[in-house]
Amino acid sequence: MKYTKLTCLLLAVAVVAAGCAPKEEPQQTAGASAKKIKLSFWTNARHDIDLMEDKIKKFNETNKSNVEVEYKVMTDNYEQALQVAIQSGEAPDIMNAKSKLNLQDLVKMKAVEPLDSYLTPELKSRFGDNLLKLDRINSLDGKVYSLPNYGSTFRVIYNKDLFVKAGLTEPPKSLDDLVTYSKKITEAGKNEGVYGFAMNMKNPVAAFERAMIPMVRLDGNDIYDWKTGKYDFSILKPYVETLKKIVDGGSMLPGYESLDIDPLRNQFAQGKIGMYLSLSAEPSVYDTQFPTKINWGVSQVPTSDGQAPKGANYINAAGNWLYMSATSTHKKEAWEFMEFMHSDDVLVPYFEQGKGVAIIPSVVSKAKEPSLKNFKDFAPKDDAIWPAMLTHKVEGKAWQNVIAETILGVTPLDKAVDDLNKRYNEGLDSAEKAGTVKRVVIPDFNAKSLISK
Questions:
Q1: pLDDT tens sequence across 431-450
Q2: What is the pLDDT of residues 112-143, one digit of tens each?
Q3: Can you tell me the distance from the alpha carbon of 215 to that of 236, in angstroms, rounded to the nearest whole number?
């Protein structure tokens, strides 16, 4: 049988009418519980599952509003699944803000709810303007969309025993140290298949987020010149040249070009890598995922000349945590859950258990020193929240892929830098002209001053 649009419409109306027709409801007996209000919470965070399951269970059992939160942990398809859900009108009530979906796009899609009307004076005082008004991170056009919890800091992770064997007495302080140390460790451990340095270059974005940008920013630089509002990839040259020297000198773990982070960690746990750069998740990794008996340590990333930092290493994914869906039909209850998630009952153990580096002063002051091995060395020192990078269309390959090709010897570095400067600045100019992005210019920008904010 063929159905016309009108027939379908009439059928739909009939179904709705039937659903709306009055019917006799069974009498509810005394003491019977009312129907639960179900809230959905989606996240791509797996490192905190044990703590979150415990805390959400507590919320479900103790909240006064008869709310039950359904907790869904997603993997690599989080962003795609979330976009589909938003576009189809089936977004979760609460979603993790720490993803590749930037705030500007979510606001443009009318996907996330401003939180300003929910913020009490006590909450505002707890976070302060410096953490509540991080432009394009947790706020946009004066409205707050998310609250901070934790961030990730970046450090050198090194094998102390391999350092001693190679005659090294301290962590690397300069770019030259990285090259020299890598060579000495490789030579000292060649009979055991040891290499001085490693990178997870299967994913260049992740690789340079961990192994290059921290050093660039600690020197006070960035690929985007915040003073002029233009891209300048020439600042990457000394860092790229350093990594290429390590590769060309035979001190990089073989297969680095197709290496993912977990296989790298596994090799480090087995004592085959002298050092690498990574984030504050590593203590938890070596406690549970890849338990290791090696004597390993943590130090701040090197500066270019080995002198005191001229800038600030960056705290990644800081300043936001959860979003409330703009289409949620239970916003009052969603906020009750979000408020619980930002309570000391959740955030203090979050920090104490090494789930993330706390950036909220009141949490840090109340928490005990994390017991997780080496986690305390990731505490912010010469680290800061940097301005959010601009997001706009750029024709051609992403800068991380182009720089990876220079390290592999495919593309000359000068040619790569000229190409990137041209394409990225043209992309920004076009986006600004089209009104899809606003160029950010901070004439007096000083990375060092970010630390005190």
A1: 999 999 999 999 999 999 99
A2: 999 999 999 998 888 887 888 899 999 999 99
A3: 10
